[in-house]
Amino acid sequence: KQWYQRRVAITAGDFPSGDTKRCVLRVRYNITTGDYDHKNTFADSNGENSPVTNDPTVNILGGDDNLGLTLAINTAQFGRTFQDRSHIFKIVPRTEAMAGKFLHNLNGRGQRGNIVQNYPSVEYDFIPDQLTAKKGDLIHVQWAGYNTNPANRAGEGTDATDRNNFVQMAGDLDTSYPDKIEKSSFWQNVESLTAPDATPKDIAVAMASSGYYCGYEPHSTCPAELSLTGNTREELQGQLNNANASYRGHVLQVKEVGTYFYMCTRNNNFTNRSQKGSIVVKE
Protein backbone atom coordinates (compact mmCIF):
# COMPACT_ATOMS: atom_id res chain seq x y z
CA LYS A 1 0.00 0.00 0.00
CA GLN A 2 1.27 3.44 -0.91
CA TRP A 3 1.12 6.25 1.62
CA TYR A 4 0.96 9.88 0.58
CA GLN A 5 1.65 13.00 2.54
CA ARG A 6 -1.34 14.99 3.67
CA ARG A 7 -2.34 17.62 1.12
CA VAL A 8 -4.53 20.68 1.41
CA ALA A 9 -6.64 21.97 -1.47
CA ILE A 10 -6.56 25.77 -1.71
CA THR A 11 -8.98 27.77 -3.83
CA ALA A 12 -7.23 30.81 -5.27
CA GLY A 13 -9.01 34.13 -5.21
CA ASP A 14 -10.79 35.51 -8.26
CA PHE A 15 -9.24 38.66 -9.74
CA PRO A 16 -11.69 40.24 -12.19
CA SER A 17 -9.06 42.78 -13.22
CA GLY A 18 -7.08 40.06 -14.97
CA ASP A 19 -3.86 41.54 -13.60
CA THR A 20 -1.02 39.41 -12.26
CA LYS A 21 -1.23 39.23 -8.47
CA ARG A 22 1.68 38.75 -6.08
CA CYS A 23 0.52 36.64 -3.16
CA VAL A 24 1.89 35.43 0.16
CA LEU A 25 0.97 32.07 1.66
CA ARG A 26 1.72 31.63 5.35
CA VAL A 27 1.91 28.00 6.49
CA ARG A 28 2.12 26.80 10.07
CA TYR A 29 0.69 24.08 12.29
CA ASN A 30 -0.34 23.96 15.91
CA ILE A 31 0.19 21.26 18.53
CA THR A 32 -2.46 21.21 21.25
CA THR A 33 -3.13 18.97 24.23
CA GLY A 34 -6.38 17.76 25.73
CA ASP A 35 -5.10 18.16 29.29
CA TYR A 36 -6.84 21.52 29.68
CA ASP A 37 -9.49 23.57 27.92
CA HIS A 38 -7.31 25.22 25.28
CA LYS A 39 -10.21 27.30 23.94
CA ASN A 40 -10.67 29.05 27.28
CA THR A 41 -7.13 29.11 28.65
CA PHE A 42 -5.22 32.35 28.15
CA ALA A 43 -2.15 34.26 29.38
CA ASP A 44 -3.64 34.77 32.85
CA SER A 45 -3.24 31.00 33.36
CA ASN A 46 0.55 31.19 33.40
CA GLY A 47 2.69 30.75 36.50
CA GLU A 48 0.92 29.54 39.63
CA ASN A 49 -2.40 29.49 37.73
CA SER A 50 -1.14 27.07 35.12
CA PRO A 51 -3.22 23.88 34.79
CA VAL A 52 -0.01 21.94 34.01
CA THR A 53 3.49 21.99 35.47
CA ASN A 54 6.92 20.93 34.27
CA ASP A 55 7.79 17.24 34.77
CA PRO A 56 5.09 16.61 37.41
CA THR A 57 5.24 13.50 39.60
CA VAL A 58 1.83 11.86 39.76
CA ASN A 59 0.82 9.42 42.51
CA ILE A 60 -1.26 6.78 40.75
CA LEU A 61 -2.27 5.12 44.02
CA GLY A 62 -3.37 8.05 46.16
CA GLY A 63 -4.18 8.15 49.85
CA ASP A 64 -1.42 7.00 52.21
CA ASP A 65 0.13 4.82 49.51
CA ASN A 66 2.62 6.30 47.14
CA LEU A 67 3.59 5.25 43.66
CA GLY A 68 4.89 8.42 42.09
CA LEU A 69 5.64 8.48 38.39
CA THR A 70 7.27 11.50 36.78
CA LEU A 71 5.89 12.66 33.43
CA ALA A 72 8.01 14.21 30.71
CA ILE A 73 6.09 17.46 30.28
CA ASN A 74 7.56 20.79 29.26
CA THR A 75 4.91 23.46 29.59
CA ALA A 76 6.71 25.56 26.97
CA GLN A 77 5.90 22.79 24.48
CA PHE A 78 2.24 22.39 25.44
CA GLY A 79 0.04 24.10 22.87
CA ARG A 80 2.38 25.97 20.55
CA THR A 81 2.90 26.84 16.88
CA PHE A 82 5.57 25.20 14.74
CA GLN A 83 6.99 25.64 11.24
CA ASP A 84 5.85 29.17 10.53
CA ARG A 85 6.80 29.52 6.85
CA SER A 86 5.88 32.18 4.33
CA HIS A 87 5.95 31.62 0.57
CA ILE A 88 5.63 34.27 -2.13
CA PHE A 89 4.09 33.38 -5.48
CA LYS A 90 2.26 34.97 -8.39
CA ILE A 91 -1.15 34.21 -9.84
CA VAL A 92 -0.99 34.93 -13.55
CA PRO A 93 -4.10 35.38 -15.73
CA ARG A 94 -4.83 32.77 -18.36
CA THR A 95 -4.46 33.57 -22.00
CA GLU A 96 -7.49 33.32 -24.29
CA ALA A 97 -6.24 29.97 -25.55
CA MET A 98 -6.31 28.60 -21.98
CA ALA A 99 -9.86 29.72 -21.20
CA GLY A 100 -12.22 26.96 -20.10
CA LYS A 101 -9.60 24.22 -20.13
CA PHE A 102 -8.61 22.06 -17.16
CA LEU A 103 -5.14 23.00 -15.93
CA HIS A 104 -2.90 20.53 -14.05
CA ASN A 105 0.06 21.81 -12.04
CA LEU A 106 3.10 19.53 -12.36
CA ASN A 107 5.70 20.79 -9.95
CA GLY A 108 8.86 19.81 -8.12
CA ARG A 109 9.03 19.28 -4.37
CA GLY A 110 11.55 18.38 -1.71
CA GLN A 111 14.98 19.77 -1.04
CA ARG A 112 18.64 18.86 -1.23
CA GLY A 113 19.69 16.10 1.13
CA ASN A 114 18.96 12.49 1.96
CA ILE A 115 15.85 11.26 3.75
CA VAL A 116 17.41 11.72 7.21
CA GLN A 117 18.79 15.21 6.51
CA ASN A 118 15.46 16.35 5.08
CA TYR A 119 13.06 14.93 7.64
CA PRO A 120 10.22 15.92 8.01
CA SER A 121 10.52 17.21 4.45
CA VAL A 122 11.30 14.87 1.56
CA GLU A 123 13.97 14.33 -1.05
CA TYR A 124 13.54 15.65 -4.58
CA ASP A 125 10.42 14.43 -6.34
CA PHE A 126 7.79 15.50 -8.83
CA ILE A 127 4.26 16.16 -7.64
CA PRO A 128 2.06 14.57 -8.73
CA ASP A 129 4.48 11.89 -9.90
CA GLN A 130 1.56 9.98 -11.46
CA LEU A 131 -0.58 12.42 -13.40
CA THR A 132 -3.69 11.41 -15.32
CA ALA A 133 -5.06 13.92 -17.81
CA LYS A 134 -7.55 14.01 -20.64
CA LYS A 135 -6.76 14.81 -24.24
CA GLY A 136 -6.90 18.58 -24.59
CA ASP A 137 -6.08 19.29 -20.93
CA LEU A 138 -3.33 21.73 -19.96
CA ILE A 139 -0.26 20.83 -17.88
CA HIS A 140 1.87 23.57 -16.37
CA VAL A 141 5.33 22.10 -15.74
CA GLN A 142 7.31 24.33 -13.37
CA TRP A 143 9.44 24.26 -10.23
CA ALA A 144 11.05 26.43 -7.58
CA GLY A 145 14.39 26.00 -5.82
CA TYR A 146 17.11 27.77 -3.87
CA ASN A 147 20.84 28.37 -3.81
CA THR A 148 20.91 28.67 -0.02
CA ASN A 149 20.26 25.14 1.25
CA PRO A 150 22.22 23.96 4.31
CA ALA A 151 25.78 23.04 3.36
CA ASN A 152 27.18 19.52 3.10
CA ARG A 153 23.92 17.76 2.34
CA ALA A 154 23.70 14.81 -0.04
CA GLY A 155 23.03 15.72 -3.64
CA GLU A 156 24.45 16.32 -7.09
CA GLY A 157 26.16 19.40 -8.49
CA THR A 158 27.16 22.50 -6.58
CA ASP A 159 26.71 22.19 -2.82
CA ALA A 160 23.68 23.87 -1.21
CA THR A 161 21.87 24.35 -4.53
CA ASP A 162 18.61 23.02 -5.98
CA ARG A 163 18.25 22.21 -9.67
CA ASN A 164 15.58 20.39 -11.66
CA ASN A 165 14.83 19.57 -15.26
CA PHE A 166 12.28 17.56 -17.23
CA VAL A 167 13.17 15.07 -19.98
CA GLN A 168 11.30 12.12 -21.44
CA MET A 169 12.78 8.75 -20.58
CA ALA A 170 13.97 6.22 -23.16
CA GLY A 171 12.09 3.43 -21.36
CA ASP A 172 9.66 3.02 -18.49
CA LEU A 173 10.17 3.87 -14.82
CA ASP A 174 12.55 0.95 -14.37
CA THR A 175 15.13 2.64 -16.62
CA SER A 176 17.54 5.52 -16.03
CA TYR A 177 18.38 7.14 -19.37
CA PRO A 178 16.68 10.05 -21.18
CA ASP A 179 15.47 9.63 -24.74
CA LYS A 180 16.76 11.56 -27.73
CA ILE A 181 14.54 14.59 -28.32
CA GLU A 182 13.75 13.59 -31.90
CA LYS A 183 12.50 10.21 -30.63
CA SER A 184 10.48 11.64 -27.72
CA SER A 185 6.77 11.15 -28.40
CA PHE A 186 5.72 13.49 -25.60
CA TRP A 187 7.16 16.60 -27.23
CA GLN A 188 5.54 15.74 -30.56
CA ASN A 189 2.15 15.48 -28.84
CA VAL A 190 2.12 18.76 -26.91
CA GLU A 191 2.13 22.44 -27.76
CA SER A 192 3.01 25.40 -25.57
CA LEU A 193 0.30 27.96 -24.85
CA THR A 194 2.81 30.28 -23.17
CA ALA A 195 5.09 30.24 -26.23
CA PRO A 196 2.72 29.43 -29.12
CA ASP A 197 5.38 29.60 -31.84
CA ALA A 198 7.86 27.37 -30.00
CA THR A 199 8.53 24.10 -31.79
CA PRO A 200 8.55 20.75 -29.97
CA LYS A 201 12.35 20.90 -30.06
CA ASP A 202 12.31 24.40 -28.56
CA ILE A 203 10.10 23.25 -25.67
CA ALA A 204 12.15 20.11 -25.06
CA VAL A 205 15.45 22.03 -24.97
CA ALA A 206 14.03 24.62 -22.57
CA MET A 207 12.66 22.01 -20.16
CA ALA A 208 15.82 19.90 -20.33
CA SER A 209 18.04 22.90 -19.54
CA SER A 210 15.81 24.28 -16.78
CA GLY A 211 15.29 27.37 -18.91
CA TYR A 212 19.01 28.10 -19.38
CA TYR A 213 18.23 27.87 -23.07
CA CYS A 214 14.82 29.34 -23.79
CA GLY A 215 14.60 27.22 -26.94
CA TYR A 216 16.59 25.40 -29.57
CA GLU A 217 16.22 28.38 -31.89
CA PRO A 218 14.91 31.91 -31.30
CA HIS A 219 11.16 32.53 -31.25
CA SER A 220 8.82 35.24 -29.98
CA THR A 221 9.53 34.56 -26.28
CA CYS A 222 13.14 33.44 -26.79
CA PRO A 223 15.88 35.98 -27.69
CA ALA A 224 18.54 34.63 -30.02
CA GLU A 225 21.37 35.03 -27.52
CA LEU A 226 19.51 32.85 -24.99
CA SER A 227 18.65 30.08 -27.43
CA LEU A 228 20.86 27.01 -27.82
CA THR A 229 21.86 27.79 -31.41
CA GLY A 230 22.54 31.48 -30.77
CA ASN A 231 23.86 31.27 -27.22
CA THR A 232 26.51 33.86 -26.33
CA ARG A 233 27.17 32.63 -22.77
CA GLU A 234 29.06 29.62 -21.49
CA GLU A 235 27.51 26.29 -22.38
CA LEU A 236 25.08 24.65 -20.00
CA GLN A 237 26.98 22.67 -17.36
CA GLY A 238 25.94 19.01 -17.39
CA GLN A 239 24.61 19.02 -13.82
CA LEU A 240 22.74 22.30 -14.44
CA ASN A 241 25.02 24.23 -12.07
CA ASN A 242 24.80 27.42 -14.15
CA ALA A 243 21.03 27.17 -14.70
CA ASN A 244 18.50 28.89 -12.46
CA ALA A 245 17.14 27.16 -9.37
CA SER A 246 13.57 28.07 -10.34
CA TYR A 247 11.86 27.87 -13.71
CA ARG A 248 8.38 29.00 -14.72
CA GLY A 249 8.30 26.37 -17.47
CA HIS A 250 5.56 26.03 -20.07
CA VAL A 251 1.82 25.55 -20.03
CA LEU A 252 1.46 22.58 -22.35
CA GLN A 253 -1.68 21.31 -24.08
CA VAL A 254 -1.65 17.56 -24.65
CA LYS A 255 -2.98 16.66 -28.09
CA GLU A 256 -2.78 12.86 -28.14
CA VAL A 257 -3.51 9.99 -25.78
CA GLY A 258 -0.57 8.00 -24.48
CA THR A 259 1.62 7.15 -21.51
CA TYR A 260 4.79 9.17 -21.07
CA PHE A 261 7.62 8.65 -18.57
CA TYR A 262 9.96 11.45 -17.57
CA MET A 263 12.83 12.14 -15.17
CA CYS A 264 15.20 14.76 -13.77
CA THR A 265 18.72 13.96 -14.97
CA ARG A 266 20.48 15.73 -12.10
CA ASN A 267 18.66 14.38 -9.08
CA ASN A 268 17.68 10.90 -10.21
CA ASN A 269 20.41 8.88 -8.50
CA PHE A 270 20.05 5.12 -8.70
CA THR A 271 20.02 3.47 -5.22
CA ASN A 272 19.87 6.89 -3.51
CA ARG A 273 16.84 8.78 -4.77
CA SER A 274 14.41 8.58 -7.65
CA GLN A 275 13.03 11.65 -9.39
CA LYS A 276 10.81 10.23 -12.08
CA GLY A 277 7.17 10.45 -13.04
CA SER A 278 4.49 9.43 -15.50
CA ILE A 279 1.79 11.24 -17.44
CA VAL A 280 -1.16 9.20 -18.70
CA VAL A 281 -3.37 10.98 -21.24
CA LYS A 282 -6.81 9.51 -21.92
CA GLU A 283 -9.64 10.40 -24.27
Write up this protein.
It is a single chain. The strands form 4 sheets. A 5-stranded mixed sheet has the order 6-5-8-11-10. Strands 7-13-12-9 form a 4-stranded mixed sheet. The chain has 283 residues and is mostly beta strands. β2 and β3 (68-70) form a beta hairpin. Helices cover 6% and strands 27% of the residues.
**What's the SSE pattern?**
EEEEEHEEEEHEHEEE
Helix proportion range = under 10%
Overall structural class, as computed from helix and strand content, comes to: mainly beta
What is the count of helical runs? 3
Question: Which characteristics define this entry?
Answer:
13 strands; mainly beta; five-stranded mixed β-sheet; about 280 residues; 3 helices; four-stranded mixed β-sheet
TL;DR of this structure?
The chain is built from 3 helices and 13 strands. It is mainly β and 283 residues long.
Write the layout of secondary structure elements.
Elements: E1 21-31, E2 57-59, E3 68-70, E4 80-91, E5 103-109, H1 115-118, E6 125-127, E7 130-134, E8 138-143, E9 167-168, H2 185-188, E10 190-192, H3 200-208, E11 247-254, E12 258-263, E13 276-282
Parallel strand pairs: 5-8, 7-13
Antiparallel strand pairs: 1-4, 2-3, 5-6, 8-11, 9-12, 10-11, 12-13
